[in-house]
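Below is a filled-in request sheet from our internal design queue. Each sheet records the structural input a requester submitted and the sequence that came back. We keep these sheets so that new team members can see what a complete request looks like end to end.

REQUESTER: design group, bay 2
PRIORITY: normal
MODE: inverse folding
CHAIN LENGTH: 376
BACKBONE (tokenized):
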């Protein structure tokens, strides 16, 4: 049976974690393919990474390398079946100032809304950090959800904890899936993917991800960081799972003087038999992720493995830029599960199926947030 091709476009595409998962979901679906149409991002190197790995050409002209406010949503971007956008999370992150919609990046979600309003794709997937829920005293998230609904979509809102989906990392993200109001029945939704792991003992571990199989010495993006002596000496006194703050036997001369900002992941080692803590784009001031045994930071390739990118996934740019790309990306394995649920929801025309979907299948947050909106 010939599969139906669904056209896919992505705003703020980064290095392509969302897109890679979407394409993999399409490859495994019996009824649908997902085909790349276009993508946009401000980061030149991320665009090259996306082009090389998603399109087969680092300079593919379907990748628009511009600030989003220089992209004409109506004329530069064609209509697709599925719009995806992980709008920049800097202003929603719990680690930062959490300026929300008042920050530089917070309002960028509105470009996704503009695309939905003008082109009316059948479906969309929007991704952001869990801090989105509390930014601006919770008003930011409500405002964003209202905009999606006014654009003409029924929503599924769910916090995906990716360690439950085979990702060797504790990475939690809000996923909003939308289906246009005129598709299927008024009761149909994009359902939530059923977790692969029920018990924590089933979680993929950091050691297994990084060591099995061993990373080839000539693998892309596998350069090690050259550490100052003080860093190496500190690491010698930090056990797996500990940070500079929790290390029990740290000599005074290697302790940090900071007392107000004791972020838990400063010089924090991984625990080999558990999923890693969240991969980020940080690196300075002891915010690299650190190996559980060796006295060094992880390489970008090791971080990419924690993010479930294959070793042949080549990242372009300086080591620092690649680190940011990897840290900002959606894990392809997690993305694949989200898009598999989307395709299965389309196949079943929004009907529920316990073989594929979570029991709370219209999202753990739907009732909590949609009940607050003044649109019904």
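RETURNED SEQUENCE:
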């Amino acid at each position: 049976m010939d599969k139906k091709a669904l056209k896919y476009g992505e705003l703020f595409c980064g290095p392509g974690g969302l897109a890679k998962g979407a394409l993999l979901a399409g490859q495994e679906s019996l009824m649908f393919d997902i085909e790349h149409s276009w993508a946009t991002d401000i980061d030149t190197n991320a665009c090259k990474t996306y082009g090389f790995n998603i399109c087969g050409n680092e300079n593919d002209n379907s990748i628009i390398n511009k600030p989003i406010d220089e992209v004409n949503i109506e004329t530069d971007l064609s209509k697709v079946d599925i719009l995806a956008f992980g709008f920049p999370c800097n202003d929603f992150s719990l680690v930062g100032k959490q300026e929300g919609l008042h920050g530089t990046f917070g309002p960028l979600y509105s470009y996704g809304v503009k695309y939905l309003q003008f082109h009316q794709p059948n479906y969309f997937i929007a991704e952001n950090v869990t801090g989105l829920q509390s930014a601006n005293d919770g008003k930011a998230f409500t405002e964003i959800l209202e905009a999606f609904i006014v654009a003409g979509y029924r929503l599924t809102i769910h916090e995906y904890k990716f360690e439950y989906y085979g990702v060797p990392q504790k990475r939690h993200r809000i996923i909003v899936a939308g289906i246009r109001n005129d598709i299927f029945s008024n009761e149909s939704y994009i359902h939530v993917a059923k977790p692969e792991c029920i018990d924590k003992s089933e979680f993929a571990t950091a050691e297994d991800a990084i060591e099995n199989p061993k990373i080839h010495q000539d693998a892309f993006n596998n350069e090690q960081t050259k550490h100052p002596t003080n860093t190496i000496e500190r690491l010698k006194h930090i056990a797996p799972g500990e940070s500079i703050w929790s290390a029990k036997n740290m000599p005074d001369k290697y302790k940090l003087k900071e007392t107000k900002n004791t972020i838990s992941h400063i010089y924090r080692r991984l625990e080999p038999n558990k999923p890693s803590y969240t991969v980020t784009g940080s690196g300075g001031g002891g915010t690299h992720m650190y190996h559980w045994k060796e006295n060094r930071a992880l390489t970008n390739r090791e971080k990419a493995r924690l993010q479930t990118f294959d070793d042949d996934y080549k990242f372009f740019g300086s080591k620092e830029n690649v680190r940011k790309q990897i840290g900002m990306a959606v894990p392809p394995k997690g993305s694949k599960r989200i898009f598999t649920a989307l395709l299965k929801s389309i196949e079943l025309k929004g009907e529920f199926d316990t073989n594929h979907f979570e029991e709370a299948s219209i999202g753990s947050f739907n009732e909590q947030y949609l009940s607050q909106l003044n649109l019904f």
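SHEET NOTES:
- Confidence is low (pLDDT under 50) at residues 91-96, 98-105.
- The radius of gyration is 21 Å.
FILED BY: M.R.
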